[in-house]
Write a structure and sequence with these properties.
Blueprint: E1 3-8, H1 19-28, E2 31-37, H2 41-53, E3 57-61, H3 73-83, H4 86-89, E4 91-100, H5 108-124, E5 129-134, H6 137-149, E6 161-163, H7 170-176, E7 182-185, H8 195-203, E8 209-211, H9 233-244, H10 248-262
The structure holds zinc ion.
Length: about 270
C-alpha cells in the first residue's frame, strides 16, 4: 500500500546535491505523495517550484515561528497571491506556522501576530494549517481557541489542521481534539526512549493520526543521527502498525485516508 509523507523539507540545503535521487528513492519505497513544507520566504518560492516539477510533490506555504521577525505586509501579500492559485500550484496547506518558545531569545508578540495572520489566511483560502509548536502549549491552545470562537479558524468538522511532529503528552493532545486537530508522528516513535510519543500515538483516536518524516531531521532507527529522507517513512509506518496491532496494509490504508481527509488538495 502506498504511503504519504505529509511533511518534509526537500528544499533544504542538505538535499541541494541530490534531491532528484531522493525523490526517486521515495517512489521506489512506496511513497506516492509528498508534502514539501516551507518555513521562510526563500523556501516558500522553492517548494512551489519543486511541486510544479514533480507529480508526486505537493506543497505548504507559510512562515515558521522562528522566522517571525520576517513577517511583513509584503510577505502576507505574496502568500495571498500564491494562495489565490492554490489548486494550480498544488498548495495543500498553510505551514509551517505556529509558536516556538524553545530557543531564546524569542518574541512572543511577533510570533503570535504572524501566527494569527496566517491562521486567518488559511481560513480565508479554505486550507488546513500545519502547526509547529514547541514549549508553547498553553499559548498555542489559547490562541487557537480564541480564533475558532471568532470564526478565524476552520470548524472541527472542516478539520483546521495538524500538529506536526507531535511530541506532547496524550493529555495535551486530548485538549486539542475538540478543536478538530490531527497529529503528525515522525521518526522519534522508533526511538528507544519514545515512551511519551508512543503513549500519545496509542491513546489518540486512529482517525486523527498521520505520519511524516520531517526530512532532513529526525531520521528513524536505524538511521537515527543521519540525514532523514522520505524513503524512510516505511519505518515509521511499520511502527504505527505495530502499536495499532494491525497488518501494515490495514494500518497504511487508515493513515492514507486520514491524510487525504486532512489535506483534500492531495486528491487532485
Ligand atoms: Zn518541519
Amino acid at each position: 500500500m502506498a504511503i504519504i509523507d505529509t511533511h518534509c523539507h526537500l528544499t533544504d540545503a542538505d538535499f541541494a546535491q541530490d534531491y532528484p535521487a531522493v525523490i526517486e528513492r521515495a517512489a521506489a519505497a512506496g511513497i506516492d505523495k509528498l508534502i514539501l513544507v516551507a518555513y521562510d520566504p526563500d523556501s516558500i518560492e522553492a517548494v512551489v517550484s519543486l511541486a510544479a516539477r514533480y507529480p508526486a510533490a505537493y506543497c505548504a506555504v507559510g512562515l515558521h515561528p522562528s522566522d517571525a521577525d520576517q513577517w511583513s505586509l509584503a510577505l502576507q501579500r505574496r502568500l495571498e497571491t500564491l494562495l489565490e492559485h492554490s489548486r494550480e500550484l498544488k498548495i495543500v496547506a498553510v505551514g509551517e506556522i505556529g509558536l516556538d518558545y524553545h530557543y531564546e531569545p524569542y518574541d512572543p508578540v511577533l510570533q503570535q501576530t504572524a501566527f494569527a495572520s496566517q491562521l486567518e489566511l488559511a481560513r480565508r483560502f479554505d486550507l488546513p494549517v500545519i502547526i509547529h509548536e514547541r514549549d508553547a502549549h498553553e499559548a498555542a491552545l489559547d490562541q487557537l481557541r480564541r480564533q475558532q470562537a471568532a470564526g478565524q479558524l476552520r470548524t472541527p468538522q472542516q478539520i483546521p489542521g495538524v500538529f506536526h511532529c507531535y511530541s506532547g503528552s496524550l493529555e495535551f493532545a486530548r485538549r486539542l481534539l475538540p478543536l478538530g486537530f490531527y497529529f503528525g508522528f515522525d521518526g522519534p516513535i522508533t526511538f528507544k526512549n519514545a515512551r511519551r510519543n508512543l503513549e500519545a500515538l496509542a491513546g489518540l483516536p486512529r482517525d486523527r493520526v498521520v505520519i511524516e518524516t520531517d526530512s532532513p531531521y529526525l531520521a528513524p532507527v536505524p538511521w537515527r543521527g543521519h540525514r532523514n529522507e522520505p524513503a524512510y517513512l516505511r519505518l515509521i509506518a511499520d511502527q504505527v502498525a505495530k502499536i495499532w496491532e494491525l497488518d501494515p496494509d490495514q494500518s497504511d490504508e487508515r493513515l492514507r485516508q486520514n491524510s487525504l481527509r486532512l489535506f483534500p488538495g492531495l486528491n487532485e
